[in-house]
Design brief:
This protein starts with 6 loop residues before the first strand and ends in a 7-residue tail after the last strand. Strands 1, 2, 3, 4, 5, 6, 7 and 8 form an 8-stranded antiparallel sheet that branches. The protein contains 4 helices and 8 strands, in the order βαββββαββααβ. A hairpin with a 2-residue loop joins β4 (45-49) and β5 (52-59). It has helices at 11-20, 64-71, 114-129, 161-164; strands spanning 7-8, 24-29, 37-42, 45-49, 52-59, 74-86, 96-110, 168-182.
Length: 189
């Protein structure tokens, strides 16, 4: 990384960024034309332990993503939090957006193991429910952790093998990822 002053190190600090991201963009080789990239935004779940990042995604049993992965499992990914923008009228090159991001490369694979599929679905649902708004009147409404001790973050979101069989789960395993952040203390021209 060229800008070492913006590098985010450590699993715990990178996880703090990932927790704030709602979408992961996955780039892969186009199955129809390997010379062209294919990128798609996806909801995700994750596990980050001992420098190994696993990203879980769900999709239908057929489709372009799966075709691409089967042909070439090498992928790249990116997720970002965009914060405020600051404009300096006197010196525009000092202007910029404050952000935090995680980018990397890894190997994608279709998850066949039923227990791992259930785990991937649980991680994905936990991640997505963390930002879910409360819907009054819903039998399954979720409230923020401050409002209810049994909120989405405390919920286990367990899936049965029968439920897992209705979708395809694929995961990206990466040891080649970086965190980067531009904040009020790292502003340079």
């Amino acid at each position: 990384m060229r800008r070492k002053d913006r590098e985010v190190l450590g699993d715990e600090n990178i996880a703090k960024i990932i927790e704030q991201c709602t979408t992961c963009h996955v780039a892969m080789f186009d199955d129809a034309n390997a010379n062209m990239p294919y990128v798609i935004p996806l909801s995700f779940g994750y596990s980050l332990e001992c420098g190994i990042l696993e990203l879980y995604f769900h999709c239908a049993h057929v489709g372009k993503k799966l075709d691409c992965i089967r042909k070439n499992p090498n992928v790249a990914f990116s997720m970002c939090i965009e914060n405020r923008i600051e404009i300096y009228e006197d010196v525009y090159c000092k202007s910029g957006r404050f952000y935090a991001s995680v980018v990397g490369q890894g190997i994608a694979e279709i998850v066949e193991n039923v227990a791992e599929k259930c785990r991937g679905l649980s991680l994905l649902m936990k991640r997505q429910a963390a930002g879910a708004p409360q819907h009054p009147g819903s039998a399954h409404s979720l409230q923020s952790a401050a409002q209810c001790p049994h909120s989405a973050s405390a919920h286990k979101f367990e899936f049965t093998p029968e439920q897992a069989a209705t979708v395809t789960i694929f995961k990206i395993t990466s040891t080649n990822f970086t965190g980067k952040s531009k904040n009020d203390y790292a502003q340079k021209c």
